[in-house]
């Protein structure tokens, strides 16, 4: 049994996007689970199920400051879960967002509103319908382009929504110092892909992707996965190993 204690949860949602609870609800849960850091990362602006509004970011920041004053023993960060929009590797963020947020995480989601209607339609349709080798490489290229263009901290739920070349993406993240997520709701890697992740030397991060506050800090799916594939705990950035 691999024993560890989770110290941070960098991927949680509130009702500013499709989460169900408030910043304070998430923080209270994080504190009760002994976390030292919590990140609020609502869905980006172009998410079809109700991403956060750009105009709400200052309001959310003010709320975080209010809650931070009440809970001084945990660090509360404001990030965003940006969407990969197209094959050019564009995300739904701009420089002013990068300046105003503490960090950026990003991934592929099933449907997003792109910058151009046609490009966005093809990108989404392929993500939904065409699971081809060629598409897999194109999606991986898009991830890599995004890693070049934006200062991101975490690639979230890789291989979810549409398949990518997991090994190639993990190697690119390792090179850039970007964390590779083991998501609390879905882990979509087969044994061969897990081996490629291990070989890449990439840093792993566990996150809950909680949409309800009670799930903040819950890494039970990852715990099982770590056991099953004997993942090296030293490569996980947000845990303390318990001897
Ligand atoms: Zn997501
Ligand atoms: Zn999420």
What does this structure look like?
It is a single chain. With 243 residues, this protein is α/β, with parallel strands linked by helices. It has one domain: Metal-dependent hydrolases (TIM Barrel). 37% of the residues lie in helices and 18% in strands. Strands 2-3-4-5-6-7-8 form a seven-stranded parallel sheet. Strands 1-9 form a two-stranded antiparallel sheet. Helix 7 links the parallel strand 7 and strand 8. The longest helix has 17 residues. The chain is globular, with a radius of gyration of 17 Å. The protein starts with a strand and ends with a strand. The site of one zinc ion has 5 residues, from loops.
Average of the residue pLDDT scores: 92
How much helix, percentage-wise, in residues?
25-40%
- Poorly predicted spans: none
- Termini separation comes to 11 Å
Task: Kindly list the characteristics that best describe this protein.
37% helix, binds zinc ion, 243 residues, single chain, two-stranded antiparallel sheet, alpha/beta, TIM Barrel, 7-stranded parallel β-sheet
């Amino acid at each position: 049994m691999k024993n560890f204690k989770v110290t941070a949860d960098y991927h949680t949602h509130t009702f500013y996007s499709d989460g169900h609870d408030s910043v304070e609800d998430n923080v209270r849960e994080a504190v009760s689970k002994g976390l030292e850091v919590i990140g609020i990362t609502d869905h980006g602006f172009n998410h079809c199920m109700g991403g956060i509004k750009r105009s709400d970011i200052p309001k959310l920041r003010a709320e975080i400051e209010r809650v931070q004053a009440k809970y001084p023993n945990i660090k509360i960060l404001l990030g965003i879960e940006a969407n990969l929009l197209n094959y050019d590797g564009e995300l739904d963020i701009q420089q002013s967002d990068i300046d105003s947020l503490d960090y950026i995480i990003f991934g592929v989601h099933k449907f997003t509103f792109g910058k151009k209607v046609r490009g966005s339609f093809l990108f989404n349709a392929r993500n939904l319908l065409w699971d081809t080798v060629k598409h897999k490489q194109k999606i991986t290229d898009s991830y890599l382009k995004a890693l070049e263009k934006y200062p991101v901290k975490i690639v979230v739920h890789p291989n979810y929504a549409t398949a990518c070349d997991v090994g190639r993406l993990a190697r690119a993240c390792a090179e850039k110092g970007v964390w590779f997520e083991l998501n609390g709701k879905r882990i979509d890697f087969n044994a061969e892909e897990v081996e490629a992740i291990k070989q890449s030397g990439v840093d792993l991060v566990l996150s809950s992707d909680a949409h309800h506050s009670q799930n903040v800090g819950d890494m039970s799916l990852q715990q099982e996965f770590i056991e099953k594939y004997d993942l090296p705990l030293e490569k996980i950035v947000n845990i303390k190993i318990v001897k």
